[in-house]
Specification:
The complex is a heterodimer of chains A (116) and B (112).
Chain A lengths: L3 E4 L2 E4 L5 E7 L5 E7 L5 E8 L2 E5 L6 E7 L2 E6 L8 E8 L11 E2 L3 E5 L1
Parallel strand pairs in A: 2-11
Antiparallel strand pairs in A: 1-3, 3-8, 4-5, 4-9, 5-6, 7-8, 9-10, 9-11
Chain B lengths: L2 E4 L4 E4 L4 E3 L1 E4 L5 E7 L5 E7 L5 E4 L2 E4 L9 E3 L8 E8 L7 E2 L3 E6 L1
Parallel strand pairs in B: 2-12
Antiparallel strand pairs in B: 1-4, 3-9, 5-6, 5-10, 7-8, 8-9, 10-11, 10-12
Amino acid sequence: DTAVSQTPKYLVTQMGNDKSIKCEQNLGHDTMYWYKQDSKKFLKIMFSYNNKELIINETVPNRFSPKSPDKAHLNLHINSLELGDSAVYFCASSLRGGTLSYNEQFFGPGTRLTVL
Amino acid sequence: GDSVTQMEGPVTLSEEAFLTINCTYTATGYPSLFWYVQYPGEGLQLLLKATKADDKGSNKGFEATYRKETTSFHLEKGSVQVSDSAVYFCALSLQGAQKLVFGQGTRLTINP
């Protein structure tokens, strides 16, 4: 199936650990994103990559480091996990388009991270 | 900065009722506007969009009209079903910005 996929779906870990979330899209898109959804369902963008280049970094702590090995993958590594990192993390992808256009973003199913 | 404000939830309706979820925005340019829906345990799906003033987006019986004069994009459906129970997000994107700015989401529950 063509889609945006994320692994794992659930991640439970202890404070201070380092963990990674993986994202892959097979839609042929050139831009990928990470969003964080907090316990109140509020969604906010964290990062955006276009053709493996970081284009958006929304004041996210340095403990979060995205890595894009190619256009189809955008992984999120989190160091020294804190209680406040507990959230659902969504990956998304789109075609970047021109400066006068917007292209629909397709979202993955989310990864629920719980830090104990 | 750019922002989206949705009506407070949760919203609970009976099946076949009329639905309105209000959404207003603040933007420095001319945004595209979107409604996304999140069904329980799932990711977000685009429900409808409008890219310029007076455009009407529609899908699955839902409609929303881009009102520049009132900076609004209210979601409506004439007759809701139990299967419409979900969280609905209004969002905007500015030309070339390539990021979505979301409202806080509105949880909708439809009772049979």
